């Protein structure tokens, strides 16, 4: 006999998957690949980020806000989490907390520097997923996208090494050096092992 879980049980099983990695590690590509593989009845939702940056060809399907719009939403309590990086403001909306309270698990593209804040906000629900890419491959990806000088790329690689070394021990490390489909499949399997089925026998 199949018995549905109560709303409170669903809420307790929901997880917050916090994807982090250095610039050029493939976070946007992985998220786009994950979207294409999710089933219609999936219990996982992918949250858009709100950013004070115009939509461009970077691959991220974010929601662009002006600085006044962002500030107004922040002061109105409409963000579940917000931070600053690379001269821009970033946030995820309170829909994340609503989805978690309804029993849906959520994944979003986070900041490695803001892991302590994410731990404070999401507690035991939090699952940190850290992308790992060899420095030579990361450097080549950064060159191909053509945004940074060689000096900037070298600086990014140094920061990446420092951040990777400082990641929490409990984070799950995901290799993204080669085949994107393989990486997405590994991510889906990990998410499945960390979440409970919506029905029990």
Automatic annotation (TrEMBL):
Domain Guanylate kinase/L-type calcium channel beta subunit, residue spans: 13-195
Signal peptide: none
GO annotation (BP), single: organic phosphonate metabolic process
Catalytic activity: alpha-D-ribose 1,5-bisphosphate + ATP = 5-phospho-alpha-D-ribose 1-diphosphate + ADP
GO MF terms, alphabetically ordered: ATP binding; ribose 1,5-bisphosphate phosphokinase activity
SUPFAM superfamilies, sorted: P-loop containing nucleoside triphosphate hydrolases (SSF52540)
Residues binding ATP: 21-28
Superkingdom classification of source: Bacteria
Keywords on record: ATP-binding, Nucleotide-binding, Transferase
Record EC number: 2.7.4.23
Alphabetized InterPro entries for the sequence: GK/Ca_channel_bsu (IPR008145), P-loop_NTPase (IPR027417), PhnN (IPR012699)
Primary enzyme class: transferase
Pathway: Metabolic intermediate biosynthesis; 5-phospho-alpha-D-ribose 1-diphosphate biosynthesis; 5-phospho-alpha-D-ribose 1-diphosphate from D-ribose 5-phosphate (route II): step 3/3
Family: Belongs to the ribose 1,5-bisphosphokinase family.
HAMAP family, alphabetized: PhnN
Free-text function comment from the UniProt entry: Catalyzes the phosphorylation of ribose 1,5-bisphosphate to 5-phospho-D-ribosyl alpha-1-diphosphate (PRPP).
NCBIfam families registered for this protein in UniProt: phosphon_PhnN (TIGR02322), PRK10078.1 (NF007485)
Protein name from the UniProt record: Ribose 1,5-bisphosphate phosphokinase PhnN
Organism encoding this protein: Agarivorans albus MKT 106
Gene name per UniProt: phnN
